């Protein structure tokens, strides 16, 4: 809303509350009100938790109250999960109690045509200086405050990716998906109908959040497009903003409108606007998380020279093709550096770029090659490829690569791809755990690195130095 006068403090309270009231808490395991209380407790929340229900029945051993008015002491955040018709009165009680933020889980508002009922929520929030997220959301997870106020998964793998989603079901599914692939998230935010808090508000918060390294947003349509783009423009100068925008086609736009009441708008207009604002548009969820994983685990590229190291010529060629197609700069290595690499390979190896160590490459060859690439200032980023062979152990190779990076101290982007079977999958997990993002095919590794280059070039074009390197070094990446 253009006339919103609420301060950012409401969002700070919402993400890090000292006390939470769950209105609609239930002792029935089949009810959302039960899951909310259970997840908050299971997640390790350390503040005070007050269940509220009409019967005053205790929930999971916690004393309950029939109204928020009865709760002793202050309450920072209300989580409301009651039928839509009761929400306005509950919200008014929250305002009278002095609660400054509310998550409205309840559905049955604008998404089904009840605009007046939703507007009552907005007016109440304005009256009491309260911020509301929702309605029609599955909740909010924030790792730093150990708060899982959702009816999604009880356990979430913590990390530095903030996931903001307009789709509740997708958000819940992604909590499980990130757990499966051990992709750490700092936050999961369900936007719902955006009666008050919009994506721009949340994005502004995460742009200043030191616990978040990149923001990934699933958007169907914007309520205030100009405001969202302004926020993206500011935020992209500080950290990567990755956007997955659905409703690209006529069928998708129609589905988005019926799903959340979003006005999807022209996809071509969105696409151009995202580019101008520095936001990185991904084509699907896997790609979006691929990018975010790299950008939260590794520093940005140091200069416009990417080196490919491989034990197989074929995957090296595939990676080189992908680099040229996506804008990752690949150049032939200087003679002196080629001579250094020749010492690490058989006579039939290739010391150009890609550097082909051949199928006879063992742990030592990989470790020394990575160290050589990292210590040479002419190399700005490194792609390390490994094809599973009968004479090497993928997990041992992965350890050698990670050891080589740690021995030198990694100030430039290193991304890996292990191509093979279950042992390669285990090796990739080990690399991810040590902050070395790994992917099952070269193209995915290159795609993530290309997105990182695009973000770095946008920042440099706007006169921003690299967030992790000196201005002089960062200037070697062409804007």
Outline:
The chain is an alpha/beta fold and 479 residues long.
Q: What descriptive keywords fit this protein?
A:
479 residues; alpha/beta; Rossmann fold; 7-stranded mixed beta sheet; 5-stranded parallel beta sheet; 17 strands; 16% strand
Provide a descriptive summary of the structure in words.
This protein is of the alpha/beta class and 479 residues long. The chain folds into three domains: 1-138, Rossmann fold (3-Layer(aba) Sandwich); 156-297, 3-Layer(aba) Sandwich (Rossmann fold), CATH 3.40.50; 299-474, Succinyl-CoA synthetase domains (Rossmann fold). It has 17 helices and 17 strands. The strands form three sheets. Strands 7-6-9-8-10-11-12 form a seven-stranded mixed β-sheet, with helices on both faces. A five-stranded parallel β-sheet has the order 2-1-3-4-5, with helices on both faces. Strand 3 (77-80), helix 3 and strand 4 form a beta-alpha-beta unit. Helix 13 runs parallel beside helix 14 (394-408) and helix 14 (394-408) packs parallel to helix 15 (422-433).
Q: What is the molecular shape?
A: elongated
CATH fold group of the largest domain: Rossmann fold
Low-confidence stretches: 1-8, 469-475
Give the strand line-up of the largest sheet: 7-6-9-8-10-11-12
What is the CA–CA distance across the termini?
Answer: 35 Å
- As a percent range, the share of helical residues equals 40-55%
- Calculate Rg over CA atoms: 25 Å
Please state the average pLDDT score. 92
**Mind describing the biggest β-sheet?**
7 strands, mixed
Count of distinct structural domains: 3
Instruction: Kindly state the number of beta strands.
Output: 17
Number of helices: 17
Instruction: Name the CATH class of the largest domain.
Output: Alpha Beta
* Category by helix and strand content: alpha/beta
Q: Which superfamily, in CATH terms, is the homologous superfamily of the largest domain? A: Succinyl-CoA synthetase domains
Portion of residues in beta strands equals: 15-25%
* Gross CATH architecture of the largest domain: 3-Layer(aba) Sandwich
């Amino acid at each position: 809303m253009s006339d919103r006068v609420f301060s950012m403090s409401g969002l700070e309270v919402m993400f890090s509350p000292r006390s939470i009231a769950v209105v609609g808490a239930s002792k029935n395991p089949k009810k959302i009100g039960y899951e909310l209380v259970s997840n908050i407790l299971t997640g390790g929340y350390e503040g005070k938790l007050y269940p509220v229900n009409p019967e005053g029945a205790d929930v999971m051993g916690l004393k309950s109250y029939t109204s928020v008015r009865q709760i002793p002491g202050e309450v920072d955040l209300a989580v409301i999960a009651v039928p839509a018709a009761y929400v306005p009165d509950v919200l008014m009680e929250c305002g009278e109690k002095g609660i400054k933020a509310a998550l409205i889980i309840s559905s049955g508002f604008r998404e089904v045509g009840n605009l007046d009922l939703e507007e009552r929520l907005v007016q109440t929030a304005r009256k009491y200086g309260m911020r509301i997220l929702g309605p029609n959301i599955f909740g909010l997870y924030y790792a730093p405050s150990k708060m899982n106020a959702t009816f999604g998964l009880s356990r979430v793998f913590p990390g530095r990716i903030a996931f903001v989603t307009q789709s509740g079901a997708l958000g819940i599914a992604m909590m499980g998906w990130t757990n499966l692939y051990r992709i750490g998230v700092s936050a999961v935010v369900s936007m719902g109908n955006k009666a008050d808090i919009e994506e721009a508000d949340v994005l502004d918060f995460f742009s200043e959040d030191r616990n978040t390294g990149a923001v990934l947003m699933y958007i169907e349509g914007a309520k205030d497009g100009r405001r969202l783009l302004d926020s993206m423009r500011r935020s992209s100068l500080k950290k990567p903003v990755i956007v997955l925008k659905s409703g690209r086609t006529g069928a998708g736009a129609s589905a988005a409108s019926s799903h959340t009441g979003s006005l999807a708008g022209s996809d071509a207009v969105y696409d151009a606007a995202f580019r101008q604002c520095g936001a990185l548009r991904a084509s699907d969820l896997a790609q979006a998380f691929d990018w975010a994983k790299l950008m939260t685990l590794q520093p940005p590229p140091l200069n416009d020279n990417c080196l490919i190291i491989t034990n197989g010529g074929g995957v090296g060629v595939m990676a080189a093709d992908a680099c040229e197609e996506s804008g990752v700069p690949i150049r032939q290595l200087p003679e002196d550096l080629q001579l250094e690499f020749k010492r690490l390979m058989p006579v039939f190896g290739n010391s150009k770029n890609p550097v082909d160590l051949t199928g006879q490459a063992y742990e030592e060859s990989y470790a020394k090659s990575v160290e050589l690439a990292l210590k040479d200032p002419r190399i700005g980023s490194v792609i390390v490829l490994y094809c599973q062979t009968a004479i090497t152990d993928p997990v041992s190779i992965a350890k050698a690569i990670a050891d080589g990076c740690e021995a030198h101290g990694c100030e430039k982007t290193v991304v890996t791809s292990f191509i093979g079977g279950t042992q390669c999958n285990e090796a990739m997990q080990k690399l991810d755990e040590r902050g070395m993002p790994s992917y099952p095919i070269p193209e995915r590794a290159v795609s993530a690195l290309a997105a990182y280059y695009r973000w770095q070039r946008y920042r440099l074009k706007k006169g921003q130095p690299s967030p992790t390197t000196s201005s002089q070094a960062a200037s070697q990446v062409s804007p």
